[in-house]
């Protein structure tokens, strides 16, 4: 997407999108490119000590044309379970082109998602990780520091293996749990990075559909990355001739017909919960980012579900977010309350666009801030 097209779409109101043409189904991602995995035990050189150690569970891609592998992954400790298998910490190895000692340890780490083909077959009616792989390869066409990319995707008879950059500091949800809630400068620091990740997805024509604190990983305590593209959609756009195409057509995006609700309950927008009409993929991600910011600033979610039966939701829907927070004895600045209120508008026609959020006074405050702020209160505001 060109910068001009991106700005037009990131600024477009719901009404403009609605008038752009009838709703259109989301587009399929291109089929994932998957290499053939080889798993070996092999000697590995430590270049610092010059020691050679034979290690097990080294995985690399086999090239049928005889090319040497670019790198390998020495699979190590388990990081967490996932629905189809496990995520493990891996050490990236460099190929040495030496028959006796073919691999060399590097300082680079990777996260290896090791998924069982049997579990994929059993559960693909619920979720298909091959779609996540295809989506991650799609957004990785253009590197962005705030969106998780993919290094290699490999397979053998038993497993589908996806290797990603390693983040060593947990997720943003854990940070909020530790802090209770964030001081506003700290919340702004993380929120601006989330907006940059969201901007990259919008530029690629992708709707995430599962934005949450749990899906923001932190690396080195200073950088955040949007992860988990398993539920994302490739947004339809109008080409200049009016036909439906992808983001490269240079036109505005289209609404998408209603789908089965997905995502974490706290973060799902009201129009997705009701599924009564078409939705704007960008607007539902804006809503979820509003909930993310709310939790960072307040320390707890605004509601269980964005439904009128919830009195908290009803107050926000009536424009009384600031009053509600004052009653909870968790006040925030008027500028922050205004931003949250305008991101969490019940009607997506009234919700802020990405460009309006970027230009909001609360986001613009401390525009030169590039480092994580520290204060005498520590984590708590």
Automatic annotation (TrEMBL):
Single GO term (MF): protein serine/threonine kinase activity
A GO CC term attached to the entry: nucleus
Residue stretches spanning the membrane: 282-305
Signal peptide: none
Entry keyword set: ATP-binding, Kinase, Membrane, Nucleotide-binding, Serine/threonine-protein kinase, Transferase, Transmembrane, Transmembrane helix
Matches recorded under Gene3D superfamilies: Transferase(Phosphotransferase) domain 1
InterPro entries registered for this protein in UniProt: Kinase-like_dom_sf, Prot_kinase_dom, Tyr_kinase_AS
PROSITE patterns: PROTEIN_KINASE_DOM, PROTEIN_KINASE_TYR
Residue ranges constituting the Protein kinase domain according to the UniProt record: 73-363
PANTHER family: SERINE/THREONINE-PROTEIN KINASE PLK, SERINE_THREONINE-PROTEIN KINASE PLK4
UniProt-recorded name of the protein: Protein kinase domain-containing protein
